[in-house]
């Protein structure tokens, strides 16, 4: 039991440390860093590496923002198996909060249409 708490703390701390190092080293804003961590979690989920991390670290891997990227990919892949290409979008909305997912999708579309300042 104590080992579970230890590894959860260590893995969660490492994820947060990576985010802080990204912000400090590359002079990125917190929003850019947050987006980068979500994408990193999605990439790890796409390669099947995030679920073993969750099994090992528990809340240390599910609480940080990288888990949101994992949830998006997991939902999209599950629905893609059932409904094809349409399921990719509906899966993201089904598994995660639709409000947060919509903010990400429309924020991305807005960034493509307009010139974001940063």
From TrEMBL:
<feature type="transmembrane region" description="Helical">
    <location>
        <begin position="33"/>
        <end position="50"/>
    </location>
</feature>
<feature type="transmembrane region" description="Helical">
    <location>
        <begin position="95"/>
        <end position="114"/>
    </location>
</feature>
<keyword id="KW-0472">Membrane</keyword>
<dbReference type="InterPro" id="IPR005562">
    <property type="entry name" value="SpoVA"/>
</dbReference>
<protein>
    <submittedName>
        <fullName>Stage V sporulation protein AEB</fullName>
    </submittedName>
</protein>
<dbReference type="Pfam" id="PF03862">
    <property type="entry name" value="SpoVAC_SpoVAEB"/>
</dbReference>
<keyword id="KW-1133">Transmembrane helix</keyword>
<dbReference type="InterPro" id="IPR014204">
    <property type="entry name" value="Spore_V_AE"/>
</dbReference>
<keyword id="KW-0812">Transmembrane</keyword>
<feature type="transmembrane region" description="Helical">
    <location>
        <begin position="6"/>
        <end position="26"/>
    </location>
</feature>
